[in-house]
Please model this.
Amino acid sequence: MANVLVVAELLEGKARKTTLCAVTAAKQIAEGTGGSFDLLSIGEGAGAAADELAGYGAGKVLKAEIAGGYVCEKYAATVAEAGKDYDVIIACASAYGKDLLPRVAAKLDAGVASDISAVNVDGGKLSYTRPMYAGNVKGTVEITSDKQVVTVRQSEFDAAQASGGTSPVEDIAVTNDPVADKVEFVGVEVVKSERPDLSEADIVVSGGRALKSSENFTNVIEPLVDALGAAMGASRAACDAGYVAAELQVGQTGKVVAPKLYIAIGISGAIQHLAGMKGSKTIVAINKDKEAPIAQVADYFLVADLFDAVPALTEAVKSL
Amino acid sequence: MKILVPIKRVADPDNASKLKVSGDGTAVTSEGLEWKMNPFDDWSLEAALRLTENAAEKNARVGEVVLVSIGPNDEHTQRIIREGLAKGAERGILVEAEDGSLDSGVVAAILKALVDKESPDLVVMGKQAADGDSNVAGTVLADKLGWPVINYAMKIKTNDDGKTLEVQRELDTGVATVKVTGPAILTTSDRILQTDSVKNGVTPDDHQYAKLEVGGRYASLKGIMQAKKKPIDTTSVADLGVDAGKTLNYTKFELPPARSGETTFVEDVADLVDKLHNTAKVI
Ligand SMILES: Cc1cc2nc3c(=O)[nH]c(=O)nc-3n(C[C@H](O)[C@H](O)[C@H](O)COP(=O)(O)OP(=O)(O)OC[C@H]3O[C@@H](n4cnc5c(N)ncnc54)[C@H](O)[C@@H]3O)c2cc1C
Model:
């Protein structure tokens, strides 16, 4: 029997959807082992977020209000203290979860299975499947320490649906860690977009180095993105060159996405890019070079100059 | 400033699709693949070198970078340490260990023992290794040391002779800025390779580094010659007095299923739209 604590991820006082993907994994663990799960809302605005999270079927929702911006040193001791009552501590493998949970694990002498794609329960025994080698190998791993710390890949776990009931909300004490005095949070610039979130969109349109400028992203890629109601993504080369914000990077070091439709425009399909999108259901490549490695994963390949093809595609989509 | 940079050898990440799994599924085999320096460590080495040089004076060294590699004491590990020395690091330490005896927690315990011995101002390390893709060791090390960790650093500016750092770190929702008092652990993001990512108070602030596309700098011929004479000390997990046990046990490895279906080369935009609308039904 494994009791699970889900660590919520708050952004500007609201739980991010990443939290609900972790809830789904937590439910699988709890149901598979006959245990239960609770949630922990921690950070600025934890109270309001806790009330919102109370609708997802947790045994209870713990809350710890911590003012000021997030740094892992300010949160980890409190999460670890709460985690002492649980067998598994889980969060999404977002930049937040990957930053915070290893520090929690260190305090609990726990092993970490990071970025898992599946939970396995075999006769009550837990193991986890996780992509390794940029998604070229799947490993199954058991955590042998008393406590288990797990982060989950957002694209592999559907967001949990609200369950109707209301879990009780409980305050917990904040545990101070002297190391927190060594880090001062100065500020955060949150990138906002009217478009769907890259990690959650049904359609993703990504552009690569071939776009050559941010103007071309605006004039060529964005109209197609908006005609499809899609999220916009990019290759590392396009992000590095400053054509688009780094948050749009898809790949091993960017976001991992698995939409119904992924359109790669002027992207060669380096192994590190494929790592972030090859789980997509239907993949389209638009590329001048029919030998480009993106062909290994593309369902449909249009050999064309993107500057001709993409505006035409945008028009065709609009008239559907 | 003294910086410890852990570097790991990994099976050539650019050819990871050629990896195989042993018949019983208990091991990943990388036969035929070259061993390479983990690219994420390479980026961190670049950051560490920028922090400890005067780029305006032919990269004159003004600090010390110590490389640490934990793994088998063979030609491949040696070669990767030499590669880092050729890029500019001053010396190397090879901690002999079998790959199978390591996980993120054990690596953190070994690095802690080395930090206790070497007392660096910073440890700058890869956020993940391109094989395990775990993203764990740096943060665990920080906690074991009671140090702060700044993950995914993309810009670093040192103040007060390097005692404090102002760091921008890349999140998946934007960029956060923090001020940290050392000693500290840093891991790096892709953007650490940008031309203006590091300001160390020695290299003029307006200096622009050469554009790097994929990884850190190349070694110069002179660097390669000098590296031959730089010391690599060898030690072992037992010598360091570390007896941490693994907390992860991999029971099975598999290759992901091949993508089903062929690639359809469509004729033109109209054909593509037709296929997406009527066949795949995704638009
Ligand atoms: C450790 C590591 C991690 C990395 N992580 C990532 C990651 O997370 N995400 C990522 O994307 N990359 C990542 N990379 C980089 C990756 O290896 C590639 O360098 C990068 O993906 C290339 O981007 P690209 O496809 O846009 O550019 P290129 O490889 O230069 O490809 C451009 C493509 O555009 C085509 N083209 C050019 N002009 C036109 C035109 N007019 N019309 C149509 N097609 C055209 C070309 O035929 C070519 O196929 C990583 C690399 C390393 C080493």
Notes: Chain B touches chain A through 83 residues (CB under 8 Å). Chain B is about 25% helix and 30% strand.
